[in-house]
Design a protein that fits this description.
Layout (H helix, E strand, L loop, with lengths): L1 H17 L17 E10 L2 E2 L10 E4 L3 E5 L10 E5 L7 E6 L4 E7 L2 E2 L2 E8 L8 E7 L2
Antiparallel strand pairs: 1-2, 1-3, 1-10, 3-4, 4-5, 5-6, 6-7, 7-9, 8-9, 9-10
C-alpha cells in the first residue's frame, strides 16, 4: 500500500512540475492603409447593377492621411473635399466623411480582398433614404 501511495505521489509531483506556463499573445492586426486613389469597379442602386449603364471611369476618391478629394462627381455621400476617418483604424466598420463647413456623413464599409486586391465596399444614401447605392472601389493603378 505504501508503494502505491508513493508511486501516486511521484506521478502527481511529476504532473504538477511538468506543466509550464505558456504566454498567449494576441496576434496584432495591422492598421488599414487606404491612402491612395480609389476607382469604382462595380455599382448598384437599390440592388440594380449600374456598372455598365453609367461611366464611372473618371471618378476617383483620393484618400490621404486624414483628407480626401473627389474627381468627377457621381451620386456619392459627399460632393466636396474634406476630412475622413474610420470608426476604428484596426477593424473599420464605417468611414466618416466631413466636408469643409458641414456635418459628418457616415458610410458603412466592408474591406474584403478580392482576387488578391484590397477592395472597399461602401453603402450610402446621398439624398433620399429610399435610394441606396453600393460602390465597390479598388485602388487605381
Amino acid at each position: 500500500m505504501k508503494k502505491i501511495i508513493f508511486i501516486l505521489l511521484i506521478l502527481l509531483n511529476a504532473g504538477l512540475f511538468s506543466c509550464k506556463t505558456e504566454k498567449i499573445t494576441v496576434p496584432s492586426e495591422p492598421l488599414k492603409n487606404v491612402n491612395g486613389s480609389w476607382k469604382i469597379i462595380a455599382a448598384t442602386r437599390n440592388g440594380e447593377d449600374l456598372t455598365t449603364r453609367f461611366d464611372f471611369s473618371q471618378f476617383r476618391l483620393n484618400l490621404s492621411d486624414s483628407t480626401y478629394t473627389i474627381d468627377s462627381l457621381v451620386p456619392f455621400i459627399v460632393n466636396k473635399s474634406g476630412k475622413w476617418h474610420f470608426d476604428d483604424p484596426v477593424y473599420p466598420f464605417s468611414i466618416y466623411f466631413k466636408q469643409m463647413d458641414s456635418t459628418t456623413k457616415i458610410s458603412p464599409i466592408l474591406y474584403p480582398v478580392v482576387n488578391g486586391q484590397r477592395n472597399i465596399i461602401m453603402t450610402l444614401s446621398p439624398g433620399c433614404s429610399l435610394i441606396t447605392y453600393q460602390y465597390s472601389l479598388q485602388k487605381a493603378n
